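Problem: given the chain below (508 residues), write out its structure.
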Amino acid sequence: MSNWSSGYVVDIAYTHGFYRELSPALQTLALVNKLIRAKPPDQPFTYCELACGQGVSTNLLAAANPQGKFYAIDFNPAHAAGARTLAAAAKNTNVQFFDDSFEEFLERRLPDFDCIGLHGTWSWISPENRAKITAFLRRKLKVGGVLYLSYNTLPGWAPVLPLRELMVRHAAGSREPIAKRIDGAIAFIDRLIAVNARFLTINPGVKDRFERMRGMSRNYLAHEFFNQDWNPLYFDQVAGELETAKLSWAASAHLLDHVNDINLTADQRKVLAEIGDPLQAETIRDFVTNQQFRRDLFVKGPLPLTSTEQAEAISEMRFALVVPGDAVPRSVTGLLGTAPLQAAIYDPVIAAMADGARSFAELLAVTAPKGVGHGPLWQALNILVGMGSATPCLAIEGEAARRRSTEAFNLAILNRARGSSDIQVLASPVTGSGLTVERIHQLFLLAAKQGRSDPALFAWEILGGQNQRLVKDGKTLMSAEENLAELAVRQARFAERTLPILVQLGIA
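Solution.
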C-alpha cells in the first residue's frame, strides 16, 4: 500500500464509467420535481468533481456543456494523468484536473462552485477525510449551490459487512497484486461455503451477494470492497455531517425514488407520513426499503418554488428518447415489483418524442387532445427518465457551440475505440450529458467519419488485427467469414435502430 494513499486502493485502476446523475440537467429536473429552485443548466456555471476517478464523467460533461468551467481532482496521479490525456485528445479547454488531496485542493486559488459532485467516495474514505470534504463544501460551494453525493447506505449493507471483513482480512495476509488477492479471498469464501459456515448458511442474502460479486470486474471490486475504509452510513448520519457545511437535503437524483406508488405500500406511506422530522422520515424509509445505495442532492440554502413557478419551469424543459420508441419497456420496476405502464398515457407521450427533443409545452399540446394532461404527462416523463429510456435536454440556444465541443470529444473516443473498449459513452450536445455506445458501434461511427463504405469490414480489420473475435449465442466465431457476416448483421441493425437516435441527439 502506498504511504500517500491513506489506505485507498491505488495499485489497480478504477473503471472508466460515466454517471449521468452528475449532469446538471438531470439534477435540475430532480430539484424542480421537488419544488426547489435550480439554476438553469444552460447558463454559465462552475463545476467541481471530487475524486473523479478516470475523469470520464467530468471530461464528457465539460465537452457537452462548454458554458461551464470544470475542475476535478483524483489523488491517484495515474487517474489524473489519464484524465488530462483524454481532455487534451478531446480538445477540452474548459476543464482542469489535479492529483490533489482534499486538503491540498482547498489551498488552491479556485472559484466558488455552482455544482460539486462526489460519486463513490463518501463511504470509502476515513471520517477525517469526510471532514476535509465538508470543510471544502463549506468554503467553496456557492449559496444556492448543489452537491451530488452517492454513498453506500445502512441498513441495506448491514448483512454484508461481515462478508466484506472476511475478504479484506484474507487479502491483507498476502503481498500479491490486488487482483490476485481478490481471487484468493473469493476462493477462501468458497471454502467456507463448502464447509457450511453457519453465517453463510443462515444468511442466504449474503451468499447471493457473494455470487454476484464473483463475476464482477476485479478493478471494480478492488475499489468497492478492499479499501482500508469502508463505511456505509445511515442517511441521517450523512445529512448531519453535511449540516456543518450549511447543506440541506433536497431530493434523490434517482427519479424512480420519487414515485412512491412503485416503491411503498399504502400502509408504509401512512407510517412515514406520520413522522414529523423529514430527515428521520427519510432514514426510516431506508429501513422500509432496505436501502443499500443512495444518490442524493443537497443544496446550500434551498429556495422553494411556488406551484406557478414550478409549472413555468416545467413548461420550458425539453425531453428526448434515448432508445427507439418501440424499445421503451411498457412496465416499470420498483421495490414493490413490476407495474405496467398505461398504454393510453405512454403511447402518445412516446410517439410525440419519436422525431427528437420536445419541450414539455410542445408535448402537452400534442398529448392533451389524446387525454394525457399536465399531471400524467409530467409523471410519465419522470418515469421514462428514471427508467433510462428518456433524458432531459438543454435549451436549443447554444446547441451549435455544444455540437462543436462534443464532436471533438466524441472523435477522441471513437479513435480510442480502435484499441480499447474502456470508454463506452459519447457526448450529446442536445442533452448536455452522455449516452452509452458500445465499442463496435463506435467503430461503425468511426468508419463513417473516415468515409469508409463498408463499416463492417472496417470494424473487422481492427478487431481481426488484434486477434479478437465476436461471440454469438455463446459461441466464439473463429473464421473471418463468420465474423464479417455477424458484423454485417450488427451494422444493419445499428443503422436501422441505433443510428437514428444518435442523429437526433447530435452524436452522429
